[in-house]
Design brief:
The chain has 490 residues and is of the alpha+beta class. The chain folds into three domains: 213 residues, no CATH class; 139 residues, no CATH class; 68 residues, Homeodomain-like (Arc Repressor Mutant, subunit A, Orthogonal Bundle). 54% of the residues lie in helices and 7% in strands. The protein is built from 25 helices and eight strands. The protein has a four-stranded mixed β-sheet, covered by helices on one side. The protein has a two-stranded antiparallel sheet with strand order 1-4. It has a two-stranded antiparallel sheet with strand order 7-8. Helix 12 packs antiparallel against helix 13. The longest helix has 38 residues. The termini are far apart.
Length: 490
């Protein structure tokens, strides 16, 4: 007997957390980078008429609340019970929302914080935005050259297909035959366009593979028959394996000449299109600066790109007059609540970043004093416990954020890293271990480079126990070749 199918209706009760629009906005502000925060705020300024950005004059001359204003607070900017319950629920679920019940006039009176907003600050911020330039993609760069090239319309059509077939390194991702079929053009036309493309800047663009790319760069330099070109053309496999003595035997040349030719090859660009990568021209503005001033470490938040906001006096006065209809009054009250929440979220963002940075400074003080070699293991949970927030809040707060230190500008995530325990009980981060490996390889004898197992032994002498496969992994992450490919013959 076959089992039958039946249908039945069941009712089930479940609980789920739904992110309200204001909460999503607060999380977005917490996560966004310094340079992108202004765009986010400008979008809200466009959508909320009760918000306005403070000018220099308004920062210093903005009127203070009067007694009549205070008397009207509860009448003109009161939230209903459902709004209050919703905000309190946000606060319980996400500590980043701050004190949501604080009166909005506190934010207006503070006018964006305690820091003095000077003409010099405004000039510096405006200079930055005036200095930003648009990025030019690889395709745009090549199309500009194609427009100036002496080619036929058919070759121009083929050129556009060729440029569209390049990968991020500048290599062709399809064969010329495939491109000819796709473009419905004669193969000869595509080949002619390809020859013109390979003469464009950057040198080596449009190559079929790495060997073709390197050889083309030498040809453009007028060295198509040089020793480096012969090595690339006839002995490329031996070159990739650094079989220098074998190359010398095949070319019947001295090792010194072969070594000099390989050094010239190493100066060529193996990925000419990479310089036009998506993030090539992206500016990174540190969200916070940690520096030593007068012998004391100081933390300075970057507020140059954050507009100073307040609730517009015009709309406050409209509410105070009591001449608005219920719909108009409700609309303005809702927009003012939204504006208050935005200002609160911005202030909470800055406070959270400062608290996290202060704890990073405390735990990574040796790094700030001496450098990367002194970086210690650190987890987000450790910082969250001290700061008084959830681990996920720390993760959001450090996303896309940068710290300017005496040793350079670092992603905030850089300071959170697992590590190892030395024999003396000292914690060492894996970043510091990578730095040690890089220093060991930098100081090795080129004729007898250190193997991964020998590096393990060197680290053991420093009381750091690490597996050979881990050394190999870190070496690869550092972009360092294995010992057999690092060996230089004399």
């Amino acid at each position: 007997m076959c089992a039958g199918f039946n249908q039945e209706l069941r009712q089930r009760q479940t609980q789920s957390l739904v992110l309200a629009p204001q909460l999503r906005q607060s999380l977005k502000i917490l996560q966004v980078a310094a340079l992108d925060l202004r765009t986010t705020i400008q979008e809200e300024l466009q959508a909320n008429p009760t918000l306005e950005e403070l000018s220099l004059d308004n920062v210093s001359l903005d009127r203070q609340p009067t007694e009549s204003d205070s008397g009207n607070d509860n009448a003109d900017f009161s939230s209903d019970s459902s709004d209050s319950r919703e905000e309190l629920q946000f606060e319980r679920n996400f500590e980043i929302l701050g004190k949501l019940d604080q009166d909005w006039r506190d934010y207006m009176a503070s006018a964006g914080g305690n820091n003095t907003y000077t003409a010099e600050d405004a000039e510096r911020r405006q200079h930055f935005f005036d200095s930003l330039v648009g990025e030019t993609s690889l395709q745009e760069h090549l199309l500009d050259q194609a427009h100036m090239a002496d080619i036929t319309p058919e070759q121009g059509a083929a050129m556009r297909y060729l440029i569209g077939s390049l990968d991020n390194n500048g290599f062709l991702t399809a064969s010329l035959n495939d491109i000819a079929l796709l473009a419905n053009l004669p193969l000869k036309t595509v080949q002619e366009a390809h020859a013109v493309l390979k003469s464009f800047d950057p040198p080596g663009i449009g190559a079929l593979n790495l060997q073709d790319c390197l050889l083309q760069q030498l040809i453009l330099r007028g060295k198509g028959k040089s020793i480096p070109a012969r090595i690339i053309k006839d002995h490329f496999l031996l070159l990739t394996r650094r079989r220098i003595p074998e190359i010398a035997r095949k070319l019947n040349m001295d090792l010194d000449d072969i070594q000099a030719a390989i050094e010239e090859i190493s100066g060529l660009d193996p990925a000419p299109g990479r310089r036009f990568g998506e993030d090539t021209n992206r500016s990174v503005a540190p969200d916070v600066t940690v520096e030593k001033v007068g012998g004391e470490w100081t933390i300075t938040l970057n507020s140059d790109y954050i507009p100073r906001l307040r609730i517009s006096n015009t709309y406050k006065d409209l509410l105070a007059k009591g001449t608005l209809s219920k719909e108009e009054k409700d609309y303005l009250q809702e927009k003012m609540r939204s504006g208050k929440f935005l200002i609160s979220s911005i202030e909470q963002r800055q406070q959270t970043i400062e608290k996290i940075t202060r704890e990073i400074l405390r735990r990574q003080l040796d790094f700030f004093e001496e450098g990367v070699a002194k970086l210690r293991p650190l987890t987000m949970t450790q910082v969250a416990e001290v700061v008084g927030v959830h681990e996920t809040t720390v993760s959001r707060a450090i996303a896309n954020k940068y710290i300017k230190t005496p040793h350079g500008v670092f992603d905030m995530k850089y300071f959170f890293t697992p590590g190892y325990q030395s024999a003396e009980g000292e914690s060492v981060s894996n970043t510091s271990v990578k730095d040690m490996i890089a220093n060991l390889i930098a100081g090795e004898d080129p004729a007898t480079p250190l193997s991964d197992q020998e590096i393990v032994g060197k680290l053991a002498e420093k009381s750091i126990t690490i597996a050979r496969r881990t050394v190999a992994k870190y070496r690869e992450e550092l972009g360092i070749l294995p010992s057999n490919l690092r060996r230089e013959y004399t």
